[in-house]
Amino acid sequence: MSANTAFEISVFPGDGIGPEVIDPTVAILQTLRDRIGGFDLRFRSEAAGAAHYKETGTALPEEAMSRADKADAILLGAMGMPDIRYPDGREIAPQLDMRETFELFAGVRPVRTLPGAPVPLGDPRAQNLDFVLIRESTEGLFAGRGKTVFDGPADRPTAAHDTQTITRAGSERLFDFAFNLGAKRKERGHAGQVTCIDKANVIGGFYFFRQIFDEVAARHGVSDPAHMYVDACALNMVRRPWMFDVLVTENMFGDILSDLGAGLMGGMGMAPSADIGPRHAVFQPCHGSAPDIVGQGLANPTATFLSAVMMLEWLADTHGVADCARAGRVLDKAVEVAFRDNGLVPTEYGGSSGTRAITDAVVAAIADGR
Amino acid sequence: MSANTAFEISVFPGDGIGPEVIDPTVAILQTLRDRIGGFDLRFRSEAAGAAHYKETGTALPEEAMSRADKADAILLGAMGMPDIRYPDGREIAPQLDMRETFELFAGVRPVRTLPGAPVPLGDPRAQNLDFVLIRESTEGLFAGRGKTVFDGPADRPTAAHDTQTITRAGSERLFDFAFNLGAKRKERGHAGQVTCIDKANVIGGFYFFRQIFDEVAARHGVSDPAHMYVDACALNMVRRPWMFDVLVTENMFGDILSDLGAGLMGGMGMAPSADIGPRHAVFQPCHGSAPDIVGQGLANPTATFLSAVMMLEWLADTHGVADCARAGRVLDKAVEVAFRDNGLVPTEYGGSSGTRAITDAVVAAIADGR
Ligand SMILES: CC(C)[C@H](C(=O)O)[C@@H](O)C(=O)O
Ligand SMILES: CC(C)[C@H](C(=O)O)[C@@H](O)C(=O)O
């Protein structure tokens, strides 16, 4: 790759606080690009989301999607507003459509605490968490979305059935991804152990899921594959989360456990994510559009900064651009230093550090090059 | 009711540490009965579980079930052993069959911390948690148990489908139960607010669940019914669990969230439960058979003691026997005092208080009548 690879970044600021966390992130990415050099980032902003649906009748315009399709990466703020819904009552959640359209099967949700940032668990080990949850993001219970089968009269059904689907192909690519990540983490000094989270003791589809996990494990040279029931996992996440390295699970379970993981980091404003597919990747904070705090400067941009780090790393990995990886490390370090040295307490944790204070601290840490 | 109501208690010690926690509980119940008087408890022990399946080919013998059917309450230890499975790979979990057979739709799982007992959350408010999770226990995703539909060749399926079923009748009785409990708690000085936990933004069956919740709420005079998405609930359970009073949810979600709740109490050994149906009720600790610690005196009997408290309360409520309610209060108080005054740290929490130490402290507190 040439030293001046240019990456097209499709930016979806979205609804609510989305733009408030995206703006400083893009500004920081521009600074890093200019400062570090060796690669270019070209941003193009797209209108989409619940507010856009209200205005235009379309949540995710086709032209935006076709430009995003061709971009090198997608950076997303937040989408959806509790009061704006489709006629059938479902929320406007275009990120789910993106996951399906681009087959973003691997929802990567790191649970990493930042020294200095407040966390809920009392044990000192919980101040140094560093594990990753991988949430399958194209099937599972979510595959039943929009396909509910009702019994009885249409205006007063007697029962509702939703089907959870687990496919061999979907599970194989998911577990391959998990074991590859495990191996990469091992190189970096982590345990590298991958644990399959399921409910194989009760639900047949999860027994199937686990069997495929064991097959894929064997192909990756893992002879004693690790499993845990989802209920035990939830318990262990509050009791001894430092035991985990890479967790991999179904869509719905991953949704629940990743929010629990965000809780361990101090809240949704601290939790980044990447939804990765065969040819696309979307990077976004785990939080929603938070209409209650819009326009007050309270939104925590940390999760978006860390999602940008994941984006830089992913671009670097997939295109072999070392300077881009370096930019990721600089931003990651700056976020760490900002929390370590400034006693920042995000407002969601009852503190007074809003968007500006956190952004300024990160910008300063980048400038200092500490 | 006469002052000498005799209750028949069907006891299923079960597998692993089951008998180790049941024995001291039955002994304590006998002491309370003799000491307080005004009611009788007659225990009959039944053989069932995974070990019984291995010996006899039957996990839950019909005769035991028909005696349990006629008993006034069922007290259960733990059932299942990881190595003993049905030919199709599913675990032996006769408690699931009991829930179905006796229609034990309301899985009541209190999250109450005992002052003095160690808990994982650092915030002082987390040392005084007192809320209740109600897990629907006869349908939901568990309704698909044993009914998985596979695509493709039988020896190498390409996909597995499991169906989550939510019925109007099942949801109505569940929510009625929840609002009745909310009202009862309100009388006792709690907030009494009932929150429906679902994923109504994505899954049609949960939107249905939520609509029924709102209907039932209205019938109970609640005009602003409270809802929370399951992912947000998991987050809030680690971030501010003191906000909750009564949570009500689907079977699978309840399984996950109740273990998380047990984590907040310090572990499974602290977490009691009641599975309540129209005519039967099963009381059991949330923990499993824990084969790794069998026979070492390490099992924490607290969850079983507190399950016995729930049994006494339930018998008292359903039969109007005041002395039985008193016995429940005495045992409850004794467990509280035992933890408050003795610095007990269960072995699951890295401490040295085993079955004996905890039992002795509770027995002493009953004797002292403190
Ligand atoms: C907004 C919602 C549809 C979404 C999901 O359930 O996937 C969110 O909770 C998430 O985790 O990305
Ligand atoms: C043992 C298992 C089948 C059971 C369940 O999933 O219901 C247990 O986890 C529980 O919570 O009672």
UniProtKB/TrEMBL annotation, chains A, B:
A Pfam family annotated for this UniProt entry: Iso_dh
InterPro entries: ICDH/IPMDH (IPR050501), IsoCit/isopropylmalate_DH_CS (IPR019818), IsoPropMal-DH-like_dom (IPR024084)
Domain Isopropylmalate dehydrogenase-like span(s) in chain numbering: 8-362
Main EC class the enzyme belongs to: oxidoreductase
Entry keywords, A to Z: Amino-acid biosynthesis, Branched-chain amino acid biosynthesis, Leucine biosynthesis, Magnesium, Manganese, Metal-binding, NAD, Oxidoreductase
Cofactors demanded by this protein: Mn(2+); Mg(2+)
UniProt EC number: 1.1.1.85
Any GO molecular function: NAD binding
Gene Ontology BP, a term: L-leucine biosynthetic process
Subunit structure: Homodimer.
Family: Belongs to the isocitrate and isopropylmalate dehydrogenases family. LeuB type 1 subfamily.
Protein name: 3-isopropylmalate dehydrogenase
Organism lineage string: Bacteria, Pseudomonadati, Pseudomonadota, Alphaproteobacteria, Rhodospirillales
